């Protein structure tokens, strides 16, 4: 087997420059960056026990489109930070912006004061200041990332990959490995995007229902959606109409190339470092074995496609064949894609598939699962007389293709249905104009492959496929369960937990006793998928995995109108951010603080 | 084949059949010599029995996959610890499934349960996810235990100091839901071609504020070129969200033409079912006159950028207001159709037609001043916002 230490030194993307070795790089001398203030595309790699990172601004060009950028060490994405399990590290972060900044180490278990969320963990990094993240020995290995938690700097380029090599042998063996960091570029300032979302629902959506569209919707269905004042095409808020989707900082016309020798297995560490995008990942002609989720290994799941939510990471193993295969990261609404190539000879390219037709929201996305079996992907289950014991099972992923009508609501009348029956909400949810919908029947949707993937004719990953490779350390049955409702109003672009924006609850965190074991059910009362992220802790998806092998994650997608459940052991003391990782949802108020009391005070 | 294993197999076969997979009736019967080439080594028998089951269910398994020399070099089974877990991992690798090398090793602070590790490995490798969801009915719902409130209210204060944290904490709340928005819209800015003198019209509005509370202003006016302005008004309103799609608006309206007059305003504005944009208000003048206005618009997208907008407006009055030519009851009706093209969402020129009728008493007042109570306008205009 090839020594991993060799393959780690391959190019991470075209155009990588070894700037890390320069004594005083130009970008570290002041706010302006070399190359006439131009930020580089692609990233370097930094490692060691003391790592210097400098945040500065500059201009970016992606495929001829220009914009303002915030970069770390002069590039977007910022450098790949490579750490080693069991070793401490000092990360010295200098802020050369004229506003406060921060870096949050996404998925890393750290003392809370180094988690990097201004206003929760620490005061933030003032202009001109160097803040030292003095981290004790790293307690984990795997694929993570880092990004700013200040303002909306993340949208402007302030993010990068974070890889931790295991102290012992890696449970995931491959001949080569590559980082594929997905993100977006927009020439618009993030505040401009936020403002447009507030003022014009559907502003970025150029795949709306029209009098001339090709959507498979009957007149009755169109009437019903209009009656609800909602859009079946509201898949993601910010789309390819402004975004150029990036692979390691490069647009689809400049796609990075990852080399392999025929017969080799390649580990792809796929990070969704975007601000607002879910991607459908495919490698036409190759099977991907999903071997890690959010950094931690899972039992291998062979799939042809999977959806990666904002801020999630997945490691996959592939054995590419032929001259080249294309890695396709299609945005969930199919308004654009990021691309990379696995090539056996430099310059080799495979065909690039066309964008598929945009998907439509279904009955299940309206929180009406059970009222239309087609939308739930069960189809023939009732006929088999097995509907009950099979609940939660994902049929489409098994290759039956029986839910071709998932996008259809034919024959379903909305008459008499109340899309906002607030009596269904528990009393701790504050009812008001910020809630435009209440799921009538929010079933567990962790067996759902994601919006638009219910009817593809190949194997797609679902959360229910994930099983931890190593057993959980805490196998207690949770002592209590709690429910958190995801709430929103599309038209006003308001997003919240339990009907209250963070502004209303900033002094009233979600409280856990130290070492308390809690089951948390997230109920989605909106028609959008939300990737919910908890800082500082891993939680275990309650996905029916065998006892003690529930997969660990730090981001969970809660599908529209459905629910997702996790167990957690509150054994990391301090205050932690808990939020939707869609940047503009978080910024609209879908944010909370989780407080874990100090050790010795708890259960 | 042991009886227990046989029934496991049949249970699984039944599940497969229930899902519509074709599973032959006898596939759980002990494999015959013709079906599975037997090998003398005991451990291979188990492997091959499983391979046979896999084949019977339609999974591709190479014929010689149980032969030890077929295992890829990546397989590393510790010589001294051929546990059940590792034996199975090796079989899976031999079938071409990827199983990481240390998948049988426990976490440093955890304890591996080999018994539970075995069964699900099959399913994962076979591409099924058929575990039932753990029941959560036994777990009580409730508030956090008392200990959850025991810590300091803000953990970061103890480390960085409350003073140091204050500004960032304020900024955090502001950034996550507290921002305010400024919006200005020129809904109709148009040139009106018609019999007699051509005219003009403006209809603008805007707001500044948070999601629920806003300062809202509106202004409308119209006239004919070369004549005195026919009507001009400005409204300043406090707007409060009262429902997901509707705001309640109260404030002042000041008219500058045809005469100066001040009104108190109460109205609602928002989005009605079927996506009708509604703006309805009642006006009480400082002379005690009560009038009302209802405007309804609907955006019908023809393409992603071409939008047809029907629009209707009705003015009502509780009494005659002769000094401004309003008759009691139905005062005026306007019905229009505008076709706009959104070069950007914010910038959309349009063409259209609008018909205005003065009704009953108002029509009489119009005729008395030599005006036509019915006017057809051919309009060219601009809709924009920022």
From TrEMBL, chain A:
The keyword Oxidoreductase applies. Residues 64-166, 242-320, 476-598 form the Plastocyanin-like domain. It comes from the Bacteria. Keywords: Copper, Metal-binding, Oxidoreductase. GO terms for molecular function: copper ion binding; oxidoreductase activity. The lineage of its organism: Bacteria, Pseudomonadati, Pseudomonadota, Alphaproteobacteria, Sphingomonadales. One of its GO terms (cellular component) is periplasmic space. The keyword Oxidoreductase applies. NCBIfam families: copper_res_A (TIGR01480). This is Copper resistance protein A like protein.
């Amino acid at each position: 087997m090839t020594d991993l230490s060799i393959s780690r030194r391959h190019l991470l993307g075209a155009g990588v420059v070894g700037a890390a070795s320069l004594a005083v790089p130009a970008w570290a001398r002041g706010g302006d960056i070399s190359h006439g203030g131009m930020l580089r595309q692609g990233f370097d790699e930094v490692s060691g026990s003391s790592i210097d990172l400098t945040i500065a601004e500059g201009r970016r060009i992606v495929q001829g489109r220009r914009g303002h950028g915030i970069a770390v060490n002069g590039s977007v994405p910022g450098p790949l930070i490579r750490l080693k399990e069991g070793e401490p590290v000092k990360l010295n972060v200098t802020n050369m912006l004229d506003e406060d900044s921060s870096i949050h180490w996404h998925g890393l278990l750290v003392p809370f004061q180094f988690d990097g969320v201004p206003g929760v963990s620490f005061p933030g990094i003032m202009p001109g200041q160097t803040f030292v993240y003095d981290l004790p020995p790293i307690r984990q290995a795997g694929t993570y990332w880092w990004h700013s938690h200040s303002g909306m700097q993340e949208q402007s380029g302030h993010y990068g990959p974070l890889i931790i090599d295991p102290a012992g042998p890696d449970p995931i063996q491959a001949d080569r490995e590559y980082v594929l960091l997905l993100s977006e570029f927009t020439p618009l300032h993030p505040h401009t995007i936020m403002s447009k979302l507030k003022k014009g629902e559907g502003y970025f959506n150029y795949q709306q229902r029209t009098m001339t569209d090709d959507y498979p919707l009957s007149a009755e269905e169109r009437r019903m959606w209009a009656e609800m004042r909602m859009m079946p095409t509201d898949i993601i808020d910010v789309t390819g109409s402004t975004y150029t989707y990036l692979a390691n900082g490069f647009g689809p016309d400049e796609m990075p190339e990852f080399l392999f020798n025929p017969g080799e297995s390649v580990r792809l560490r796929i990070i969704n470092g975007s601000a607002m995008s879910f991607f459908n990942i495919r490698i036409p002609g190759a099977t991907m074995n999903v071997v890690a989720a959010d950094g931690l290994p899972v039992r291998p799941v062979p799939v042809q496609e999977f959806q990666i939510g904002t801020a999630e990471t997945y490691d996959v193993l592939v054995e590419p064949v032929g001259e080249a295969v294309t890695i396709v990261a299609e945005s969930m609404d199919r308004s654009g894609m990021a691309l990379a190539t696995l090539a056996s000879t430099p310059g080799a390219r495979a065909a690039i598939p066309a964008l598929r037709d945009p998907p439509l929201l279904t009955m299940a996305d309206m929180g009406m699962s059970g009222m239309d079996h087609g939308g739930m992907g069960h189809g023939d289950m009732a006929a088999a007389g097995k509907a009950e014991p099979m609940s939660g099972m994902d049929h489409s992923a098994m290759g039956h293709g029986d839910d071709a009508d998932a996008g259809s609501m034919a024959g379903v009348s909305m008459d008499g249905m109340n899309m906002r029956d607030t009596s269904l909400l528990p009393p701790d949810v504050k009812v008001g104009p910020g809630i435009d919908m209440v799921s009538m029947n929010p079933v567990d949707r962790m067996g759902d492959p994601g919006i638009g993937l219910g009817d593809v004719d190949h194997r797609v990953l679902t959360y229910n496929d994930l099983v931890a490779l190593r057993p959980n350390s805490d196998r207690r049955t949770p002592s209590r369960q709690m429910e958190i409702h995801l709430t929103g109003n599309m038209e006003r672009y308001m997003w919240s937990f339990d009907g209250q924006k963070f502004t209303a609850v900033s002094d009233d965190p979600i409280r856990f006793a130290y070492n308390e074991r809690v089951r948390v059910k997230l109920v989605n009362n909106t028609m959008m998928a939300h990737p919910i992220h908890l800082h500082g802790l891993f939680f275990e998806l309650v996905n029916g995995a065998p006892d003690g092998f529930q997969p660990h994650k730090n981001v969970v997608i809660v599908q529209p109108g459905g629910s997702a459940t996790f167990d957690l052991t509150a054994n990391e003391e301090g205050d932690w951010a808990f939020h939707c990782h869609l940047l503009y949802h978080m910024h609209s108020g879908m944010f909370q603080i989780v407080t874990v009391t100090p050790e010795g005070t708890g259960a | 084949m042991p009886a227990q294993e046989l029934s496991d197999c049949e249970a699984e076969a039944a599940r497969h059949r229930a899902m519509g997979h074709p599973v032959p009736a006898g596939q759980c019967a002990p494999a015959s010599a013709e079906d599975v080439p037997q090998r003398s080594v005991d451990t291979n028998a188990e492997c091959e029995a499983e391979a046979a089951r896999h084949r019977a269910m339609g999974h591709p398994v190479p014929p010689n996959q149980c032969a030890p020399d077929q295992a890829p070099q990546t397989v590393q089974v510790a010589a001294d610890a051929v546990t059940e877990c590792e034996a199975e991992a090796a079989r899976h690798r031999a079938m071409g499934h990827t199983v990481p090398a240390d998948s049988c090793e426990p976490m440093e602070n955890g304890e591996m349960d080999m018994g539970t590790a075995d069964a699900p490995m099959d399913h994962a490798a076979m591409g099924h996810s058929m575990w039932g969801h753990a029941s959560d009915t036994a777990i009580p719902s409730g508030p956090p235990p008392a200990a959850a409130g025991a810590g300091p209210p803000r953990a970061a204060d103890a480390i960085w100091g409350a003073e140091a944290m204050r500004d960032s904490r304020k900024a955090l709340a502001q950034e996550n839901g507290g921002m305010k928005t400024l919006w200005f819209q020129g809904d109709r800015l148009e040139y009106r071609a018609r019999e007699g003198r051509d005219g003009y019209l403006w209809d603008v509005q805007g707001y500044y504020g948070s999601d629920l509370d806003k300062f809202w202003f509106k202004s409308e006016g119209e006239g004919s070129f070369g004549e005195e302005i026919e009507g001009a008004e400005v409204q300043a309103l406090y707007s409060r969200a009262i429902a997901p799609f509707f705001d309640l608006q109260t404030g002042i309206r000041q008219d500058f033409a045809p005469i100066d007059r001040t009104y108190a305003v109460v109205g609602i504005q928002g989005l009605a079912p079927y996506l009708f944009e509604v703006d309805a208000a009642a006006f009480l003048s400082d002379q005690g006159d009560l009038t009302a206005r209802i405007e309804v618009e609907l955006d019908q997208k023809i393409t992603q950028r071409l939008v047809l907008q029907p629009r209707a407006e009705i003015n009502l009055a509780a009494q005659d207001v002769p000094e401004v030519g309003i008759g009691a009851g139905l005062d005026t009706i306007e019905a229009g159709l505008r076709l706009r093209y959104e070069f950007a969402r914010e910038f959309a020129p349009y063409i259209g037609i609008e018909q205005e009728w003065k009704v009953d008493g108002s029509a009489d007042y119009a005729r008395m001043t030599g005006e036509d109570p019915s006017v057809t306008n051919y309009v060219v205009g601009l809709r924009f916002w920022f």
